[in-house]
Amino acid sequence: MKKTRKPLFLGVFEEEEDLLEATVATKQAGLSIVDIYTPYAVHGLEEAAGIRRSRLTWVCFGFAFLGFTLALGLQFWIGSIDWPVNVGGRPFNSLPAYLPVTFELTVLLGGLGVVFTMLARTRLFPGKRARIIYPGVTDNRFVLALDADRADFDPEATRRLWEESNVIDTEFFDL
Q: Which of 23, 53, 95, 157 could be a cystine partner for 48, CB 3.0 to 4.6 Å?
């Protein structure tokens, strides 16, 4: 199965204020923003691009709840049903004795679940070759990437829109 490439139209900016201004103008024009590349975190960029909050917190909660349930359930089953051993007169289902293992398994499954979900969702894996979308994007350039595969996409109109925001370069890139 051959992977199809998705063409992107890149706009490169020198200042973060220009990038924010171009992002707002691009969203108002109804263009499809694929990604925004910055060398550091830019405050207000999520709101300007209309990015929703991450759902990884709910994934973490789900995996943590699974760890909590597995730890308590397995310990209660082993201590009460499978191998009940009376040590020092304690009851077979003594909750305080189960808390350390329950806490550790909750944290372990919550953390590992989030990491593996994030890696699967972003299609990152060990050995994957990084592709730099534009030289300098990791140093001092800000790049706004649009979906150029849409039928109504006009690169000249987009260039004119971005010229008001001091765009320094535009180009096509195959993702």
A: 23
